[in-house]
Amino acid sequence: MDKALQHAASTIDAALLARVVKGDQQAFSQLYDHSSVLLFSLAVRILGNHEEAADLVQDVYLEIWRKVSRYDIGRGTPDAWLVTLTKSRAIDRLRAKGTQGSRAINPPETTTAVQVTDPDPIPLGTQADQDLRSAVGAALAGLPQAQQQAIELAYYGGLSYGEIAAQLNQPLWTVKTRIKLGMTKLQAALKQWQNEGSPQ
Amino acid sequence: MKHEELEESVPLYAAGALDRVERQALEAHLLSGCASCHSTLKDYQSIAALLPLALSPSKPPRSLKAKIMAERSPEPIPAQSVPSDPARSSLDPGDWMDHLFPPEAPVQSAALPWALGVGLLLIVAVGGYFVWDVWTQRSSDIAKIQQLEAALLEKSTKLAGVDREVGDQTKALADLRNELQQRAHEAAETKERLAQRETDLEETRTQLIQRSGGRTVETPQDEFATLLRIPNVNAISLIGSDIAKQATGFLLYDSRIQKVWLYSVNLPECPTGTTYQLWAIQDKPVSIGTFRVDTGETTHLLVKKVLNFTLAKTFGVSLEPSGGRSQPTEPMYLLSRS
Q1: Which one of A122, A151, A172 terminates a domain?
Q2: What's residue B114's pLDDT?
Q3: A141-190, pLDDT tens digit by residue?
Q4: Which of A122, A156, A191 is the C-terminal boundary of a domain?
Q5: Which residue on chain B is closest to A61 by alpha carbon?
Q6: A148 Cβ partners below 8 Å, 6+ apart?
Q7: Nearest CB to B49: which of A70, A80, A183?
Q8: Can you give the CATH number for the domain in which A189 is found?
Q9: What range defines the domain where residue A162 resides?
Q10: Which of A199, A137, A164, A182 is nearest to B51 (CA)?
Q11: Is B75 helix (H, G, I), strand (E, B) or coil?
């Protein structure tokens, strides 16, 4: 992905993270407000449980606070760092539970109840954030079902392509190709979205 | 794994789909400084980081923020003092950026340059030794190959020499065989000519018989000539004694027909009232027959029918009174060689 797309894909301002690095508690609070929904959604999707997800997200933010000084904008967007950290911790926890196979296939808990019963609306971010969400959703939905399934089993289930092949009873190379093709199509679709004039 | 294989595994790495071994292989490759794979991974990691945006958003519990804010330490830990957690997986999500994009700031540990230097030196030393060992082994192998090639060339030369000798001998053998065939052919032709001559002789003899009115005309000389061609006839040579040194004789004996031929040459003329007598001497002399040599006669052929005397060892001719005697009374003129 080129830098323009990376910039467009970032929902968190790098300057905000820079303030956090300096120990700005207000900035850390804003960082939480900007990213917690995304990270919590990811944790719920992987762990399939709100309480565990909340516990995990708490650990992740504490780790962010401790290690934020190591972050360098030149190495990746703030979103990438936070998402990758959260995903990794969630997968570790999932593996520790030994239930990654079933969790990956089962659909995650719906958030409908939370949305309905919670009087506070979910922050949707800027229009650019919403456009980006739509673009990613469209790109993922545009993949063939088999490719989408293979990517989600790997990404959210923490399964290797060998484990996915065994679970789906498919040849190794088939699963490998599905993931590779899927990732490549996602990259192409998002680049096209960027080139067609996404909000900067 | 080859670079192409590793680069192809980058999208799977970003999606988290590689197993532990493959993941570690790619990480080692990335840490070796492959800029191409670094760039590719950065792109795919950015894509992977966007995937959660497609999820239905879930709002965390309201109390969570307060707990986090309460439990965090007063200040973020400076980068230099962030401890590493050895119990974590090889490439944590927060660490992958550090792994793949090392900070440009001065290295954190003063011992690191020394360790890197020593490590590099060790690698160079091991690599140099390996190259030297391979080169030495290769030189030794080349020398062995050259020796084998020289030995092979020598053997080939010898083999070529042996081949030439065998070829020469084969040619000589073929020449001998041809010559032998030629001789056999000539012998066959000679035999054929001889048979033709005998046929001609037989025809001539038949014509003579017809001209003589059916009587068989066979002179002693003819019979003697025929005897010479019969292989079963015994031939005995006689020489003259002191009283007839010029005389010689030749005796033929055919046991099948019990017949003797004596051909004498240069025997003295028989005086009146005498005759030559031929003796076969075994235990004692046995008379075979008598003959005369008249004036002017230098040769004489005696043909006699006799009994079997194959045991006779000696033959002789003596001059006896006319009519002959039962035992020799005079010295021998001719005597066979013992």
Answers
A1: A122
A2: 62
A3: 999 999 999 999 999 999 999 999 999 999 999 999 999 999 999 999 99
A4: A122
A5: B68
A6: A140, A141, A182
A7: A80
A8: 1.10.10.10
A9: 124-200
A10: A137
A11: coil
Amino acid at position B147, single letter: Q
What CA–CA distance (Å, rounded) separates A187 from A199?
18
What is the number of domains present in chain A? Answer: 2
Q: Domain map of chain B by residue range?
A: 1-51+97-105, 106-217, 221-336
Interfacial A residues in 32-71 facing B (CB < 8 Å)? 32-33, 36-42, 44-45, 50, 53-54, 57-58, 61-63, 65-71
How many beta-carbon contacts under 8 Å exist across A and B?
218
CA distance A47 to B98: 27
Residue A183's SS3 state is: helix
The token pair at B116 is 């890197």
Same domain, A84 and A165: no
Q: Does domain B1-51+97-105 have CATH number 3.30.460?
A: no
- pLDDT, tens digit, 9 for 90 and up, residues B187-220: 998 888 888 888 888 877 777 777 666 555 556 6
pLDDT digits (tens, 9 = 90+) for B114-134: 667 677 778 777 777 777 777
CATH number of the domain within which A84 lies:
1.10.1740.10
Residue A184 class from Cβ within 10 Å (0-12 exposed, 13-18 middle, 19+ buried)? middle
How many angstroms separate the CA atoms of B261 and B235, rounded? Answer: 10
Within 10 angstroms of residue A178's Cβ, the number of other Cβ atoms is 25
Q: Computed over its alpha carbons, how large is the radius of gyration of chain B? A: 65
Residues 6 or more apart whose CB falls under 8 angstroms from that of A175 comprise A150, A161, A162, A164, A165, A168
